[in-house]
Amino acid sequence: MFTVLKDLGWFFHRERKRYTIGLAMLILVGFLELVPPRLLGDSIDQIVSGSVTWDSLMRTILYILAMLVLIYYITYIWMHRLFGGANLVERLLRSRFMRHLLSMTPPFFERNRTGDLMARATNDLRSVAATAGFGMLTLTDSTIYLATVLGAMGFLISWKLTLAAIIPLPFIALAMSIYGKAVHQRYTLAQDAFGDMNDQVLESVAGIRVIRAYVQERLDEKRFADITDDVYRKNLAVARMDALFEPTIRLFVGLSYVIGLGYGMILVFRNEITLGDLVSFNMYLGMMIWPMFAIGELINIMQRGSASLDRVNETLSSPQDVQDIEHPEAVTAAESIVMEDVTFRYPTSQTDNLQHIHLSLRRGETLGVVGRTGSGKSTLLKQLLREYPSGSGDILISGTPIEHIAAEQLHSWVGYVPQEQILFSKSVRENIRFGKPDATDADIMEAIRTAAFDNDLGTLSDGLDTIVGEKGIALSGGQKQRVSLARAFIGDPDILVLDDALSAVDARTEARIINNIRSERSGKTTLISTHRLSAVEHADRIVVLEQGRIIEEGTHSELLQRGGWYRQQYERQQLESGLSSGEVS
């Protein structure tokens, strides 16, 4: 149960001053709270014996008031320290969790659902934080404070009465142990179900247009209702166990009161304790109610925190699928790109997705990659991003194996525009500036011109300051592509990778973008995969892929002369273009 505290040992060590002060103040308050009942008991004995005076009574009242003010001030200190620590550990763990996610590559996100990761970053971390705050409070109160009250009852009143009153305590400990194990198991299942629900919400929101287009709203509602019902049932199972804690403790605390009052009266009649002692004892017994509850809360909070920390650590302990070597080589620039007999397979694939690829590209050259859908075009380009563990063969940049180059340096050379454009819920300006944080408005406008997006600015409600919405929902497909292109252009990367990034623009806009690339990126390397062959006619070299193999290679004119797949596809597209022009005219 207490493994969660051991796992958080690094934090308690780091914040030892905070917790030393906080726990010391908490313990001090526990001792100070013992004084008022004792003073009250003494006053009752003075009243019974007839020795009480106005001065002694006022002095007792002033002492009690002064003690209450002191307890109030010290309580503020320990609450600020302990619960401030809870907020701090949540912030630290959330930052660590986010850094870990940002360091992960696609295989990790293929294994883990987004909704579940969100649940771990929110609910689970909140439960862990509660362990560092409320958990430390209940741990202290259920041990040190409980022992302090018991000591006061035994030493200041009567050990015989104290031992009789605590007979129910072992039964509380046994019940809490049984309940705690059940809470851990059920809470883990509830958090997993919450992750499933998060994932369903994300999918429904992201795919709302498709859901409406296929009139599947009612089916999606039913699917979501089933998931929320599962979450409800699993959280209800946790609540059932939570509900057993308080009645169980109340039952045994009530027994302690009965024993304390009954046996205490016998001791008063025997003159072994005074009436003031019995009043003080019952006040101390009342003070034990919270520590007894704290035992249940402690087990509950520790089991929840343990289950949540296990889930968080499961994510944090996931190793990076692609890691830098210990001492990467320093490469000043990407002068050449060479692939020698590269064969690659995705972790989830049963066959090789690339087979025996041989390529050589010098700085300043443009490579076109074409082929049927699923032929491996995107897979070939992604080899330069090192998103997956390397296959066989060698990929060399400036003569250095790509595995020997630090990922940060490699990515600093590459500007990448994927097939599916991801825009942030910010303005057009901020989305483009993402590619170069210190870019000026002049730089942004130049990138926009290169991406042929300048004519569209006038159609946007606030120009560059137009909020594009979540994932760019406020823009058309072609506009999203061109904003993504501008984001890549603004950084002027040494290697520009366009993965079917012109599919949503018309032929005239595509021609303008290609011309801009040719003029603006002189001396820089460009790789373009596309289904529209007009986008790569200008390329220094074009490769045609089929089932992960290069079946044709050459310039545009060379491939036309060979009469293979490239020529057939080119003539078909030219015919389609001619028919479209004829229809328009």
Task: Describe what this molecule looks like in 3D.
- Keywords: ATP-binding, Membrane, Nucleotide-binding, Transmembrane, Transmembrane helix.
- Residues 337-572 form the ABC transporter domain.
- The chain crosses the membrane at residues 21-40, 60-79, 128-155, 161-179, 249-269, 281-301.
- The protein contains 22 helices and 10 strands.
- With 585 residues, the chain is an alpha/beta fold.
- It has 2 domains: 3-316, ABC transporter type 1, transmembrane domain (ABC transporter transmembrane region fold), CATH 1.20.1560; 336-584, 3-Layer(aba) Sandwich (Rossmann fold), CATH 3.40.50.300.
- The mean pLDDT is 87.
Ordered list of secondary-structure elements with their pairings:
Blueprint: H1 3-7, H2 9-14, H3 16-32, H4 35-49, H5 54-103, H6 106-111, H7 114-157, H8 159-165, H9 169-206, H10 208-213, H11 217-269, H12 275-287, H13 289-316, E1 336-344, E2 354-362, E3 366-371, H14 377-382, E4 392-397, E5 400-401, H15 407-413, E6 414-417, H16 428-433, H17 441-450, H18 454-457, H19 477-489, E7 495-499, H20 507-520, E8 525-529, E9 541-546, E10 549-554, H21 556-562, H22 565-584
Parallel strand pairs: 3-8, 3-9, 6-7, 7-8
Antiparallel strand pairs: 1-2, 1-4, 4-5, 9-10
Helix pairs in contact: 3-5, 3-7, 4-5, 4-12, 5-7, 7-8, 7-9, 7-12, 7-13, 8-11, 9-11, 9-13, 11-12, 11-13, 17-19, 21-22
